[in-house]
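quick one before i forget lol
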Amino acid sequence: MVPVILLIILLVIVVVPLLVFFGYMYALSKKPKHSIIRSHPFLGWLRYLLEKLGPEFRQYWFDNDTEGKPFSRADFIGLVYAAKYRTDLISFGADEITRSPASIYPMPCSRN
């Protein structure tokens, strides 16, 4: 009687939560929008979990959000947001044909 009760307790405490956890991770990895989650589901979700916990870690252990070289974390987040989600911005570079006969180009001068 005692081994049966211990087996049931073991199943409830250890096996069922593990099955629920791995089933949930499998369901999340079926159609993700990030390629790292599609290729490595557990490492990808761990990465995004640590990204969410980042402000708590930085509060005590790492640099502040306004510190950083060459630019701060707040500036970096602004750049990432602009690059990923804003469609009204034009990237750096030319949007027109640059080698036409009517174009004027500055010529470098050499000073001797």
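fyi Residues 28 and 54 are 22 Å apart (CA to CA).
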